[in-house]
Amino acid sequence: MGFATEQAVRHNCTVFETHSEPIPLRRRSGPVTATVEAAEPLTPLAVRVHLSCPELFSGAPPAVAAWVRGRFPVETAAPVTPSAASDSAPAADAAPDLEASQSTAGLPGPALAARAYTLVEMDPAAGRFALDFVLHGSGPAASWARQAAPGQQLEISRPLGRARIDPKHRHYLLAGDATALPAIREWLRLLPDQATAAVRVWLPAQSEVQELGGRSGIDLKWFFPGDPSMAELAEAGSLAPAGWTPADPETRFVVAGEAGEVTRVRRAVSWDAKPLPGNLHAAGYWRRGKPSDGAAVELG
Ligand SMILES: Cc1cc2nc3c(=O)[nH]c(=O)nc-3n(C[C@H](O)[C@H](O)[C@H](O)COP(=O)(O)OP(=O)(O)OC[C@H]3O[C@@H](n4cnc5c(N)ncnc54)[C@H](O)[C@@H]3O)c2cc1C
Predict the structure, then answer these.
(1) Domain for residue 243, yes or no?
(2) Nearest atom in ligand 1 to 295's CA
């Protein structure tokens, strides 16, 4: 049995990699302030917030599917109508993130809660980028995204993540839920032309389907409520095209989404043969029923 080594990285965001080296948290110089330029709905349950921050790109080029940790005011988190939420989180989840509130105790301004979001639409020369938010419920980040308007400011970390394209990989399985869509789009944008990609995405409704960029020849499948889940497909051996396995030197699996679901996927795809180092990256982006803390998750 080839279970990957589990690397739990703080609280409820988890990353699993296939090697035993500790994952270094990437610490660069301090946070920066980004300014909202515009916010546009992408789907009924997703909004893209365009931001500017020339300082953000002053370091090394960001990794593939790089992300930032933003600090969102807890006070904007307000209950939403059930119809506006893709997940009916328990009422208790709408409560402020206590840890975040305490971390700002004694400082002026509202309590802030850290949350992770993938960088998209990056234009380093212009100092611009965007973040795509799933409007899943009433947490601080989703609530902030609903009301985001030009001129507002958001404190964010420098780009995080360390995934790089490895030319040895010729086949990519990219799988995840709505929170992983931005990362999947970034992977597709940066994959070498000769690489083949199979994309599997789980969404709460047909109306959440988005464009994934101009890449042709993708083996793309969307899944909706009532379809087998990502974990169920993995456990049935049919998440990836026949014969694809991260135990093959040329095949890389990138899986992200709800942590419990991703854990099952990781176990299932590691069951028959141990994934080669760097060939399986399975990241818990959120955990059902628990607020995130924006913890560091490195893409392998
Ligand atoms: C590296 C990384 C990159 C990420 N990139 C993105 C991204 O580009 N876009 C994006 O939308 N998310 C992304 N996420 C996930 C995002 O950080 C979490 O969904 C986060 O919990 C949202 O914060 P919140 O304040 O809105 O809700 P929280 O306060 O964290 O959670 C409140 C409640 O909502 C539930 N919940 C949280 N997220 C979801 C969800 N998506 N669907 C249903 N229920 C949910 C929780 O279980 C909890 O019950 C990323 C996470 C990581 C670690």
Answers:
(1) yes
(2) 53
